[in-house]
Design a protein that fits this description.
By secondary structure, the protein is of the alpha+beta class. The chain has five helices and nine strands, in the order E-E-E-E-H-H-E-E-H-E-E-H-H-E. The strands form four sheets. A three-stranded antiparallel sheet has the order 8-5-9. Strands 1-2 form a two-stranded antiparallel sheet. Strands 3-4 form a two-stranded antiparallel ribbon. Helix 2 packs antiparallel against helix 5. It is flat and about 85 Å long. 16% of the residues are buried.
Length: 194
């Protein structure tokens, strides 16, 4: 992608991101300092720093740019109904297992009690947390006719399929292919959790 800026003489220069912060010669004979990348991005109408897809979605929701259309994503009919979904992109997890059967649990409690009696006292060590929580709540237009009448909801398979038809959501699902999806009741704040 090229960025443009102007020399003092008015000549427009187009440079790549890798040229940011360098200098070049203008046809007017001046040596022109190429602005820093953050300045070039602002001149191009972008944010100074590249935002993650979840941050961009949050910004679009805040600016009321989402949902993009007034049409139902399923049938294309005009609708003002908006359904909200939480897309869980990443989940933090603990190195301490929580899926133990009852017998193992009882044995480990007895063993822990025996070890604590026989060994010197040590402080509690919290489990190590891996990864991070990344989730975003997103709106999508869905008319009353396309919602499953018996359950008053849509299938998650249909929701994922429709989310992929909206460019910013498709980008999110491409970046996080293992993301899970769940419907939300009511209208959340739309805040991205990162």
């Amino acid at each position: 992608m090229g960025y443009t800026f102007h020399c003092e003489c008015g000549k427009e220069h187009t440079v790549s991101a890798s040229q940011a912060g360098s200098s070049l010669s203008c046809v007017c004979g001046r040596t022109v300092a190429v602005p820093r990348l953050s300045e070039l991005r602002v001149l191009a109408g972008q944010t100074a720093h590249r935002l993650s897809v979840t941050e961009r979605i949050h910004g679009m929701i805040t600016r009321e740019e989402l949902p993009e259309s007034e049409l139902c994503c399923e049938c294309g009919a005009d609708t003002d109904q908006v359904l909200w979904f939480r897309i869980q992109c990443e989940t933090a997890w603990s190195s301490e297992s929580t899926n133990r059967n009852d017998v193992l649990m009882v044995l480990s409690v007895w063993l822990a009690a025996l070890v604590s009696v026989l060994s010197p006292r040590r402080g509690y060590q919290s489990p190590e947390i891996h990864g991070r929580e990344v989730a975003v709540s997103v709106p999508i237009r869905w008319c009353h006719n396309c919602v499953q009448p018996s359950e008053q909801k849509v299938s998650m398979r249909a929701a994922r399929k429709q989310l992929k038809t909206i460019a910013i959501y498709a980008e999110l699902l491409k970046e996080y292919p293992q993301a899970t999806l769940e419907p939300l009741e009511g209208e959340p704040t739309g805040r991205a959790v990162v």
